[in-house]
Write a structure and sequence with these properties.
This protein is an alpha+beta fold and about 180 residues long. The chain has three helices and twelve strands. It has helices at about 5, 70-90, 155-170, and strands at about 10-20, 25-30, 35-40, 40-45, 55, 60-70, 95-100, 110-115, 120, 130-135, 140-145, 150-155. Strands 1-6-5 form a three-stranded antiparallel beta sheet, with helices on one face. The protein has a three-stranded antiparallel beta sheet with strand order 2-3-4.
């Protein structure tokens, strides 16, 4: 009889997925280094840390496959495809995060410096200390027009989200009840 615990160790012979380039985008892959070019620019990403095969199938399609992989290893196929799809979306539409300065008593003063490449946060909880955050490469920080609302914008979703996280983490409240402060 086939035991259930033996099924966990079985390997799938081949798992593959195809990513099709959207209109106005060119895909290129060489030795697991993907280059995506579109109207907003060019993004390059290296997937050499993942043991998957990547090849172009025609001019507009890229195939990602894994031979003889276990369940966890097969997850890398879809992960790579999702990253490439995010890169294609970035070079056509771009990514935008909205952030808002929220305060109860001390009005937070946010100054955009270095031609939208860095941020200075002043008067956070009435502190005299000025917090300075540099944006990642290719990311801009602008005012949205609404009061205390700002836009973090760029082509690479990882760099845009990391820049937003750096701003958020710079204003982490220590030694106070975060529900109130």
């Amino acid at each position: 009889p086939l035991l259930r615990e033996n099924l966990g160790n079985m390997k799938t012979i081949n798992s593959s997925q195809i990513v099709t380039a959207i209109k106005g985008v060119t895909l290129h892959v060489k030795s697991r280094r993907v280059v995506v070019t579109g109207p907003r620019g060019k993004l390059v990403r290296n997937f050499r840390h993942l043991p998957v095969d990547m090849s172009m199938v025609g001019k507009k399609q890229m195939k990602v496959e894994k031979w003889f992989g276990k369940h966890k290893e097969l997850a890398a196929v879809r992960t790579v495809c999702s990253h490439v799809e995010n890169m294609m979306k970035g070079v056509t539409l771009g990514f935008l995060y909205k952030m808002r300065a929220v305060y109860a008593h001390f009005p937070i003063n946010i100054v955009i410096t270095n031609s939208d490449k860095s941020v200075e946060i002043r008067n956070f909880l009435g502190e005299k200390f000025t917090r300075h955050v540099d944006m990642m490469k290719g990311v801009t920080f602008k005012s949205s027009g609404s009061k205390d609302e700002f836009i973090v914008q760029g082509n690479d979703i990882e760099l845009v989200s990391r820049s937003a996280a750096l701003i958020h983490q710079s204003t982490a409240v220590k030694k106070k009840d975060i529900r109130k402060f």
